[in-house]
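Below is a complete specimen:
___
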Amino acid sequence: MKWEILIAVSCDAFAYGQEDVNNDRVTNEWTNTPDGDAKQFRREWFQGDGMSVPPGDIATQPGTKIVFNAPYDDKHTYHIKVTNSSARRIGWAFKTTNMKRLGVDPAAGVLDPKENALIAVSCDAFAYGQEDTNNDRITIEWTNTPDGAAKQFRREWFQGDGMVRRKNLPIEYNP
């Protein structure tokens, strides 16, 4: 379903060049409305359990990819650091494109604001050059936890109407 929305923004008269306008901004917030609600704006849609607020940023170290070095006749483990850079508690979960070769431990968890976790990404032994590795990657997904929720990961946080963000980390294999 596609909707077109017209938003009017007005500006009162002011003395240009004599007033500080550097911090003036317009913020656009959006959310999915509960099923069955009339098409009438309701402020409480934005003040509920926190799931309608877009998740903030996370940081990973490394930030763009994970590199494993040969030889590949034994298991390799690489540690990455995940930091919740936002002001809200988040739930996070890792996925991988190759569950036979790649593992993540722990695979899911909860981080408070500014908290971090050390994650072990492992690569099992394989025949380098004889298996396709072009699409190997891990993906971290994260979402805000409901307000007041216990600090225990719940898969259902990712299955409702709440916003989920993703970051892909490709896997590079050096010969």
About this structure: The first strand starts at residue 58 and ends at 61. Strands lie at 58-61, 66-69, 76-84, 90-96, 102-105, 108-111, 116-123, 137-144, 165-174.
